[in-house]
Amino acid sequence: MEKLLNLNSKRQRDRKWEDLDPDCLANVFVKVGIESLLLFVPFVCKSWYRASQNPVCWERLVFPDSEEEATDDPWSLDDNAANLPWTYANHIEGQRFDYFVRRFAREFQINWSRFSIPSFIKMVINRSGGNAKFLKIPGICSHYVNAIEKILEHISKNCKGFVGLHVADATIGTSEASAIVKFVPNLKYMCFRQSCLGKNDLLMLLKECRELVLLDVRECEGFDERDEEILKLASHISKFRCKGSKTHVLSDNDLEVEDRDVIEIDE
What we know:
By secondary structure, the chain is of the alpha/beta class. The protein folds into 2 domains: 1-56, no CATH class; 59-266, Leucine-rich repeat, LRR (right-handed beta-alpha superhelix) (Alpha-Beta Horseshoe), CATH 3.80.10. It has 13 helices and 8 strands. The protein has helices at 2-14, 22-29, 34-39, 46-52, 79-82, 88-91, 93-107, 117-127, 147-158, 174-183, 199-208, 228-233, 252-266, and strands at 60-62, 134-136, 164-166, 171-172, 189-191, 196-197, 214-216, 239-241. It has a 6-stranded parallel beta sheet, with no helix packed on it. The chain is elongated. Mean pLDDT is 80; it is low at 65-93 and 257-267.
């Protein structure tokens, strides 16, 4: 028995990464994030490279890869998860994304003046082999001309099972809302938290995206959380969240003006 145990122990020590089942490796790589999948994992060894090409690793595309607990998971229907506070990680998300894409360009010797954010994201989408289901990109992407429209058009042509979009702290105007309705009208999960989103554009989404089961538009600017027309149209969505959204969010300058007015009236 002792010899058998010693033999099994030696076999365990002699095991190599390439002997591990590729599907097991792929299930591990699902957890590491896009940054690691692009910059590190494929270059460790051949078995890791092959496992990283498994489409299952690319079903949930979250930009950028964060070391922090960035947000609540917009794809979860768990009430506790959906009500977590907006964290500091979200506010520096754009900075992390910029660092990530610049590092990618540097590592692969791509001239930054020719680097295209939409093309980069479409390249990552292609890694899924058409299996991408969820996409989370930072709000800064909405500031690139036609970026969201180009990305959604690419998804509509290549990812038939796509169901979730997360673009928080963004500017969602008529062109972006129209692109969602045109290219991915069958979305089930959307998150535009803390974004600039006008009432008419939100109404367009509510009227056309009839398969939604979760829509997170909390703390947005452009519509009122108590708007009866919006609430009526959203009544079919089991998880509709709009708490804290206002038609106009007062800036510090606005508050200073209001304070001065109050003082003058009191006098």
